[in-house]
Structures are given as structure tokens and as C-alpha cells.
Write a structure and sequence with these properties.
Length: 326
Amino acid sequence: MANTDTVADPTATSFFESLLELFRQAHNPDLCQAQNILLRRLALQGDVVGSRVPAPQNITEIGGYLNMLREFKQEEMLAQVLAGILGVAGPNPPLGWTSSRPPLRMVPLTNDRPEGASQSAIPLWFMVRSDFYVALQQGRNRLHEQGCVLPLSAAGRRLPPASSLGPSPTDLLPYLGRCLELVPAAALNDPAADLLALVRPAGTTEAFRIAARVLAPGSVSVPAADWDAQKCDSSSCRVVQITGGQFVPVAPILASAGFYSPTPLPEPVTILSTEWTRLTNCTGLIRGKTKLGDELEQLYDTAEIGASVFATMLNWLWDGSTFVKP
């Protein structure tokens, strides 16, 4: 009886395992680019699905295929077909290697999650736009050097489809990767023990500011001072005094990364208030010139934008606070 056992090719097995691992771990720009190239090459040349269209038998059939490509405006593919017929080099760059990925992307950043009452409410990571990544990480490092943390929250957003029920979103900055939020649970419960606090110098009438509490001495010392701080419950907020507290205002550090809190900072009225947590980054937006469509194209491909509720708003202009119809 013939031996029907299948013997696996170790080289092929190793190759496909490496390929699958590449697909599973495509989480940084280089791997995403490699994944994109491989998938496009498989789709265009890998014969993933066998063709049901027979090869052309004569010049008339060839002309029919060329006319079809021209009718569907597939100019680059048309040039590739002609190059294949003539046996010459195709257009440069060759079809299948051209990346249509937007120039920017949302990338994950590991969050600050120290032990404590608020730890369970802090996400393991948050998403930040790739061009803001380095500056934000540098700002967080400055806080870490002073013994502080900065728990943040931001998830990647998909554009709402054009078929969505209800009105279009009025807050557009989150869809442009220009918003972050401080984790609400990190403050307002017990200013002397929370990770963050809304404070002002004791005995003054200055506006409250967001500050990070020193959890342990860092490489950069922070002087102790007396502070007034907001402490809230489910029905109200009140001002409490902290003697000899070590706090680092986060506004100057976040500003160095382009992120700012609302001005004036909204004061909480209960523990559920979250308006104070919002941070926005409007760097590079020019009043009366920057178009919504140009900003969307930084993060999304043309097809996704065209299928979204923003497809009819692409010429809207930045007015200093939002995008408005010209």
C-alpha cells in the first residue's frame, strides 16, 4: 500500500509562519507598510482567485480589454497592460507597490497606570496622532522626572458613515486626532491622594489649574507648598486646603506638545463633571485657510472620506475654534 502521508516542506512552513506573524503584529509604521505591500502584491499578482476571463485570442479581444480599462479610468493598469504586451518596463512606480496610505496615523502609547483607587479606570494605552507622538512623550517624560504621572484617554475613531441617522457631529477635532482627555477618575475624589488635582495657591482667588501630584521623589525635585483644591462628590464640589503639598501644573508641559485645556478652565460642579478633562491640539490650523478635507486626508483614505458624513463638508474652513461652511 502506497504511503499517503504528507511531508511538510520546512522552508515553506517557516516562510508562511513568518508571513502570518507579520500580519498579526503590524502595529508600527514599518510593519504596516510591509503588510500593505504584501497584500497589494497578492491581490494583483498572487493569483489568489483564479481568473474566469480567458486570455485574449486576437487583437480585437485585446482592444476590448484595453477599452474596458479606459472606460473605467484605470489609467495605471492600462499602462501596465500595454507594457506587458510590448515587453517593456511599466510605469514607475509599478502598480502594486504604490502606497495609498495617508501620511499620518493614530498610534498607541502606553498609559500611566500606578496603583491606587483610579487604576481600574485608566486604559492600558491611548491613541495619539503620529505627528504629535514625540512631543507628547517628551512632555510625559518631564512629568515622570518630577515623580508625577499623566493618565490619558483617547480612542481611535472611525468616520461616521453618510447613512448615519441623526445630525452630523459638531465636534470635529476628535475625528482629526486633535483631542485627548485626562482620565476623570484620576482627580476630584481626594486631592491629597489623587493622581491629578485642580489646585490654586492657598488663600488666593486665582483660577484653578490642573496639576499632577508628586507620587514619589523624582530626579527633579518639586518644592512643597500650600494649596486650595477642588474636592467633589455626587452632588457638589467644595474647596479644601492642602498643607505642604507637592504638585506640578501640567498646562506648560502639555502646551510644549501643542495640547491646551479650555480657557477659562471649566470648574466641576459634581464628581461627574468632565468638561475640565478635554485637551485640544490646533497647531498648524490657519483661520480662514485650513480646509476640513485637507485635515481629513492626513488620517483617512479618499474612499473612507467620500463615504462619510463629512463628504459634503470638505471645503469648510477653520474659524479659530471649529470648521464652518464658507
